[in-house]
Every structure is written in C-alpha cells, then in structure tokens.
Amino acid sequence: MKPISAYFEELRTTRAWRSVFRSGPGGTRLHSALVVQQNIFLHLFATKARKRVMSFRATWYLGALSFGTFLILVVTGVLLMLYYHPSAPQAYADMKDLQFVVSSGVFLRNLHRWSAHAMVFLVFAHMFKVFYRGAYRPPREFNWVIGVILLLTTLLLSYTGYLLPWDQLAYWAVTVGSNIASAVPLFGQDIRYLLLGGHQVNANALLRFYVLHCVVLPIAAVLLIAVHFWRIRKDGGLYVPEAAAGENTLAPAGAAAEDAGAATRGGTP
Predict the structure, then answer these.
(1) Which of 39, 125, 141, 217 is deepest in the core (most CB within 10 A)?
(2) Is residue 222 in some structural domain?
(3) pTM check: above 0.85
(4) Long-range contact pairs involving 52-58 (C-beta distance under 8 Å, separation at least 24)
C-alpha cells in the first residue's frame, strides 16, 4: 500500500492541479519566487523579506492581528446573518433568540462583538506604531493614506453595527451620533439624512445601517486591504529605519578611493 504522500505527489502531477497551481514545490529561491508571483492570493505579498523586519519588535504583528480580527468578524458576521432579520419589530427578537434559543448563540455574538472592539484597538495601535517608526514617509505616503481610510472604515463598521441589536442602548447611541453628525457646518443635516434615511432613527435607518454594515463597508474594506498589502510589496516591503538598513551597506567605490587618497596625503576629504 502506497503512503499518503505518494497520492499527493500523483495529485500534483495531474493536469487539473497544474492548471490551478502552475508552479509545483521546489527548493530553489527562484522557484519559491515563481510560486508567489503566479498565485492570485500570494502575489499580494513580497517574494522575500529581511529577517529583522519579520521580528516581533519591528511591527508587534499589529497589522497581521488586525487582519486576523477582520477575518473573525467576517466569519461570525455571516453566521449571525443566518439568524437575523433587519426589520424593526423582528431585530430585537432575533437578538433574544441568539441569547436564549440558538445553540452557542451567546458565544457567537460575543465573539463578534469583542472582535470588533479588538479590531478598533489594534488598528489604532497599528497606526500609532507606523507613525512612531516613521513608516509614513516617502515612498510610503500613499499607503499611509490607504491606512487612514481603513481606520475610518473600521470605525464606520463598528458604528453601523451598533444599531443592529435594536435595543435602547443602540437606539440612543445612534441618535446621539447622528445628532453630532448634523452639527457639521453646511452639510450636517444632509449627512444625518443620508445616514438615517430620514429624520428619525426608525426602520429605514435600521435597514440602511444593515446594508452598510454587511455589504458596502466590508467590500470596501476588502478592496482597501488588498491595495494596502499590494502597496507594501511595491514600496519595498515593510519599513526598515535608515540606520538599520545602512549598517551593512558599502560606500561607492569612487568615494572610498577618494577617502583613501586623502588619508594617504594627510589631508581631509
């Protein structure tokens, strides 16, 4: 009887497998680079990276943790949508069913809720870390703007999800938030009307918040995250401070020769 690994090797040699994965496993760096470049998901990442930028001290893994919480929110959000109706008389009853009727419903809802809180915290910490290290400087200024938009998208995701339980806390929190938005000069009332779909927090606002929270903002977040990862690769990978990057850098040959000649003559360069 053949081992399981032999069956996998036979599978990798089939035409169907080769049509999906054009580059098979290999031990060379060139082959590893081809695997990354020819994969629709892996091509967003760099084919190679410096070891020091992959250490915990460099980034504290805040970007990866933020993306991880986003994936948890997507999975738990899809599961919650199976038990939720975005209608004013039914939304609160669905939340009660999740709490008392649905198996593991409390765990599912709390996992989604606390993952949302964790994502907001991690994205803020990630932005602070990037700013502290100076990773927003050229040529990474465009990716910094993408990060700021992602931060705003994260806050909007958290805010639009606040109304969906349709309880007193959600109702008055959205009421206060929409009143704050109406204080914007010139366009305040228009922003509030666009946000609520009317002049009051009612069924129209609930449906609008549901569409924003479950469709519009997640799609925008996925697109922005893809561009964010792609720009990291195009901008030369994760940021390395100039002092650390130049520790092992050799000076140009002409400058070294000029310095050596000046030292021989006893002068200064």
Answers:
(1) 217
(2) yes
(3) no
(4) 52/240, 52/244, 53/237, 53/238, 53/239, 53/240, 54/238, 58/238, 58/240
pLDDT in tens, 160-178: 999 999 999 999 999 999 9
Q: Is 21 domain-assigned? A: no
Residues 222-241: pLDDT tens digits? 999 999 998 988 888 787 77
- The reply to whether 28 falls in a domain is no
CATH of the domain at 150: 1.20.810.10
Given a contact cutoff of 8 angstroms between Cβ atoms, the answer to whether 25 and 12 are in contact is: yes
Take residue 126 and report the two structure tokens written for it: 């990630």
Domain that holds residue 201: 58-237
Q: Scanning the structure block, which residue is given the tokens 């997507």? A: 74
- Rounded-to-integer distance, Cα 58 and Cα 53, Å: 5
Which three-class secondary structure state does DSSP give residue 158? helix
Please choose, from the candidates 245, 247, 238, 226, the residue with its C-alpha nearest in 3D space to the C-alpha of residue 129.
238
Taking only the tens place, the pLDDT of each residue in 35-65 is 777 777 777 777 777 777 778 887 899 999 9
**Residues of the chain where predicted confidence (pLDDT) is lower than 70:** 23-26, 242-269
Alpha-helix runs per DSSP H in the chain:
4-12, 15-20, 29-37, 56-59, 62-81, 88-100, 105-133, 141-160, 168-181, 188-196, 203-211, 217-234, 242-245, 253-265
- Our count of domains for the chain comes to 1
Please give the C-alpha separations between residue 15 and each of 6, 27, 32, 210, in angstroms, as whole numbers: 17, 22, 21, 44
Question: Phi and psi dihedrals of 163, rounded to 5?
Answer: -80, -20
